[in-house]
User: Fold these one by one.
Assistant:
Number 1:
Amino acid sequence: MGAGSTLRRISPFLTIACLLLLWQWISARGIISHILVPPPTDVYQAFTDSLADGALLKHTLVTLEEMFFGLLLGVGIGLAIGYAIAKAPILENILSPVIVAFQSTPIVAYAPLLVIWFGSGIASKIVTTAVIVFFPTLVNTIVGLRSVSPNLRDLMRSLKAGRWQIFRHLEAPSALPVILAGLKTSTTLAVIGAVVGEFVSQGSGLGYLVTSARNLYDTPLVVVAVFTMTAISLSLYGIVAYVEWRFLVWQRRSSA
Amino acid sequence: MTLSLRELSVSFRDPSGCALPALGPISFDVKEQEFVCVVGPTGCGKSTLIRVLAGLLPASSGAALCEGALIDRPMNQFAIMFQDANLMPWRTVLDNIALPLEIAGVSRSSRYETVRALLPQLHLEGFESAYPAALSGGMEQRVALGRVLVQQPRVVLLDEPFGALDALTRENLGRLLLRLRQRYTQTIVMVTHDINEAVLLADRVIVMSRGPGRLVADVSVDLPRPRTHDMIYHQAFLTLTKRIRASIDDLSA
């Protein structure tokens, strides 16, 4: 490994380090008020404090729970309807007005409606997450299933494979790469869904932590909550990327 | 198994609903264990013919029969090989060849045993766990051939199986097919546009005209078996290829 590739590897971390230094310098020089931009040290203090009193963990777990069930619901329904549409194109004509309307309306606008319908508890946040995650899953499922090679379909027919065998041995593995790509988008969207839900109806979760800290002018805590969301988002993305790498062995470039 | 085409014709519909004749009417019979090659120019409906015999495409009129029974869906003991190797990229060589056995419900250990026994004939030893992306075109077709053999079919349908390969690889695969022919005795229908390949491999060559494909010549190949690739220099071979060539040239004249 040459010096060039080492530099390439560490450069993202260098960028982060530089930004942190710049940030610390700006707030230390008093160029911008600490209430607007708290110095990294204050943020770190807020982080350890909220970790110590258990608040950060509590709210993070709430958000994670909403995201988990939201993803389960949204991805599940997206896969099922996507499969149905790919199999029976007439369903696309029937369902497209509803799906397109849902997708083209900003979720923030109708999130309050979801709270009215599903209450201010966890249910409304799960539904918000599910709605936002549904669409990319649906589209990728349809695209994935439609990309199945017609020649391989002929092969499966000539082998007299049944519906389930065609699904298991042909459709699922062909569509999987596209569906996993959609899942990467979905996981990052799930954070947005959960947080939007928490903004609209208060109670708990990282979105709630942001609003309540803002009301107390506790800017460091707001930053801590936001960074936690970033961390969740990146970790989930990483998990899906790992699953991709692990299960799509055949797509890995052979390195000799 | 015997095959027969009775005034078989196929037409497709263009987007405006007009019928586009693609094949026939054409009639011929294939005897038990006979190797028949169908040659003809591009667009004469050769692939359509194979698809009807495979039960993947219905006849518009007339019929394709196997042992006198109508072929209206994929039949038992039929195996087809496509122009494109048509492998599943997510399966290894071993699992691609084993696919028909897996569909048929054969247990993992016994299907792997069967496939491993087949690999030496296909010159694929050592590539069991390779994925198709790592294989050359010729190797991919050998895997596809393995997937046919593993089914122990009584009828093999080959749709320009070597069409997408370079000349040398074609020759090698042709040789492989000749060797396999000595060991296995199926009824074979192979579509090709290579006259030399057809004469070298087949017991009988059927020449088809351009769209809609009709039979224009039916030539028996009485070269001795086992055949070797050197036969392409024999006088008998040249006479046959010339005859077939002439019947094709008559079409364009």
Number 2:
Amino acid sequence: MLRRIGAVMLRHFYETRRNLDRLTDAIYWPAIDVVMWVFLTGYLRQGNRLHPGVTNVLLGGLILWGVFRSFQRDLAVGFLTEIWSRNVINLFGSPLTVTEYMVGLAAGNFVKAFIGLICAMLIARIGWSGGFLDRLPSLLPFALILVLFALALGVAVTGLIFRYTTRVQTFAYGLAGLLMPVSCVFYPLAALPAWLQPAALALPTTHVFEGMRQALAGGGVSGRSLSWGFGLAVCYFVVAVAWFKAVYNSARRRGHLVRLD
Amino acid sequence: MPGNPAVEVDCVTKAFGNRNAVCGVSLNVARGEILGLAGPNGAGKSTLLHMLLGLITPDDGTIRIFGRRFPGDRQAILAKANIASPYASLPPRLTVQENLLVYALIYAVPRPRAKIASLLELMGMSAQRDTVVSRLSSGQQVRVNLCKALLNDPELLVLDEPTAYLDPAIAERVREAVIGRRQAGAAVIYASHNIAELESMCGRVAVMGRGRIAAIGTPQDVTRHILGQQHGAARLTEAVAAFARGNG
């Protein structure tokens, strides 16, 4: 089992090494985002245009959201790559199980997202002297919740592709963006209209970013935000896996597995 | 029929919507046998082959491979089987060697680099070992796919149009490799539109049309069955062509 998971990781490592799109998605764009925001928040701090605490929150939100977005997108795009290269029959006509495939894909993307996170943090450290970076370790549990939720979304989107083929591949790129306005990445929950707040609270991302703001403001890590974020992420993950299993079996019945493109 | 059945297909049916792709197909393939599969496009050959590897679930009927069934014994079955199909390619950004190393890991091939080197030599692809697949010609890509299909010395080898795009010399090498697997005791299912190839290689041939097996047996039996009284000195090629005209 571990050998086959390793094979999937190796396959995507080779792909990433030669695919400029994958490299730019993993490192270049997150790095550019952070550079832009370092300059912007630096400017806003001059002349007390913006409180330093607010700029910390903006930068923290940007870095954590980058981890979430790239992990979700890369998981679904990783599977799309198999369809685009017509490799699905070879993969699933082998002893590799779909669970092993997804674990291998997720593990490879975890490494990639971690490298992207380290790059973003290094750039922030070079360009930013605020106390923000000292508090970064306290954000690690929040980052892990985001990774779990991104995994759930990536699994769900891959399930959608099994069910509706590449017609729905736009979700691989766009789903995280759809959730961003209600995830309260850069503003508090209270900034949303009252009617939208229940929807926001149903997302683990909202609890993560609320907790992140509290931690960066020096209020400590909120156990309540962590619990809600983690609990919801687990729920979404369980639902996504159940949905994925159902649509995978349905794809084999409908013959979609051999005609996903 | 030599040896015990490696493949047992019993009354298998598959429909997609209201189109019957495979209807009540039954056949056996023994170890050490090459079964040829012929028939016009849309006859259900590929659907049947995909069902043999668990890629498509039959609506009805049973499939046993080495006495085992999907989905419970999927991994045990597929560890001993392999496929080369025109519907499948290998990732284009990986080199030939990288692709084969990935599949060697998946199939737990011992001494993978030596095995890959010998297969590339067999297929005349040693010089392309470090070339990315996207830079290979269609024929070279087919040969890499065949290397992948032979990587685990499969006891069940499923080949769908394996010599399409190949020049005659390489096609001959492929046929020799397939015959080599048969001699090693593997069961081979060989779908092709090249009927002369099937006639020369296969002990038995099944001709499919509209999801059903119209005839199965030795090439002579099948020719006689399809052409009936007009059989004379006709070859299987003429019989399959005549069948396709009536069932395309």
